[in-house]
Amino acid sequence: MAIDGKITRTDDDAITGWIASLTFDVDITLTKNPHKAKETHPDFEITTRTPRNRVIRIGSAWEQTSQKGNDYLSLSVMVNGQQVRVNALRSDEDPEGEYRLVPLAA
Predict the structure, then answer these.
(1) Does the pLDDT value for residue 106 go beyond 70?
(2) pLDDT above 90 covers what percent of the chain?
(3) Which of 19, 42, 51, 103 is the most exposed place for a label (fewest CB within 10 A)?
(4) Domain residues of the chain, as ranges?
(5) Could you give the dihedral angle defined by the CA atoms of residues 65, 6, 17 and 27, in that order, rounded to the nearest 10 degrees?
(6) Is the pTM of this model over 0.85?
């Protein structure tokens, strides 16, 4: 599945962005998970807005560190009845706080 997207961490530590494919295109917001009680629980809840402007949770995200020591986010999002897994990566060319979404290989 072709997936694209971008998220940006703002000065107040909020994270907003979008994720899209040929069948969906949604704005997303990541907020700290207020229910995190264990290390394995998600660090963030991922939400979007319905067509009637209601906030609905569509996924979770975990803060990760690669073997090379780079920080990234691992996202799991439910869109159109399908679970989508992507990593939010940052390269040296990306502006500070900006991450591109890269789908995980199936």
Answers:
(1) no
(2) 75
(3) 51
(4) 4-103
(5) -120
(6) yes
